[in-house]
Specification:
Layout: H1 8-23, H2 38-50, H3 63-81, E1 90-91, E2 94-95, H4 98-124, H5 129-141, H6 162-176, H7 180-186, H8 188-192
Antiparallel strand pairs: 1-2
Length: 193
């Protein structure tokens, strides 16, 4: 059956399954969401980065960090508008300290920097732009399928260069350990104490 010939119930099933699979980083696909149009591809690209909730084993930035980032942006905007105002952002009923804002901003920056650096490395290894960006995003978030024909839900990683597979494996480890953990683990100060 052509994917464009879905009945409404089938379309809802395929869309729901695909969203849950990407957000939970289970790696399963029952249809090629890359072929559902450019808006849907961009939506899934965002979902690849979002990840699940805090404490889950999903990859990605995690929903809590997105919420705290949004609250941090709101606080910065408020301080620009009302420089003498006092604003206390809360999460789950508790005041968010500046240290939490700094930690979340640092993590998100390092996460996105790692994603971009690895995408550039994949392009340098001869992969096309879409596969490089999609592969880097899928690896750092540990989602599995990316976006596009080569490594999207209808493709696989079999046709990419072997060195690119090693690069993606390293990026998957960075993503699974959430970068800071690996940096702390590799720090000489960690081993001295």
């Amino acid at each position: 059956m052509n994917e464009l010939e879905f009945k409404p119930a089938d379309a809802i099933l395929h869309a729901t399954f695909s969203v849950v699979s990407v957000v939970t980083t289970s790696g399963f696909a029952i249809s090629d969401y890359s072929g559902w149009g450019s808006f849907t591809a961009m939506l899934f690209f965002f979902l690849i980065f979002s990840g699940g909730c805090t404490g889950s084993t999903t990859g990605g930035i995690k929903i809590m960090r997105f919420i705290i980032s949004a609250k941090m942006i709101r606080q910065v905007v408020r301080r620009q508008i009302f420089p003498n105002g006092i604003f206390a952002e809360k999460y789950d009923g508790k005041k968010i300290s500046d240290g939490v804002f700094t930690g979340v901003a640092s993590f998100v920056f390092l996460f996105m920097l790692t994603f971009v650096v690895f995408a550039l490395i994949l392009m340098a290894l001869g992969m096309d732009f879409e596969s490089s960006v999609s592969g880097s995003a899928a690896a750092i978030t540990n989602v599995g399928p990316g976006i596009g024909q080569i490594i999207g839900p209808a493709g696989n990683y079999g046709d990419i260069p072997e060195l690119a597979k090693w690069v993606l494996s390293l990026e998957m480890i960075l993503g699974r350990l959430e970068i800071f953990t690996l940096l702390i683990f590799l720090s000489p100060r960690f081993w001295r104490s």
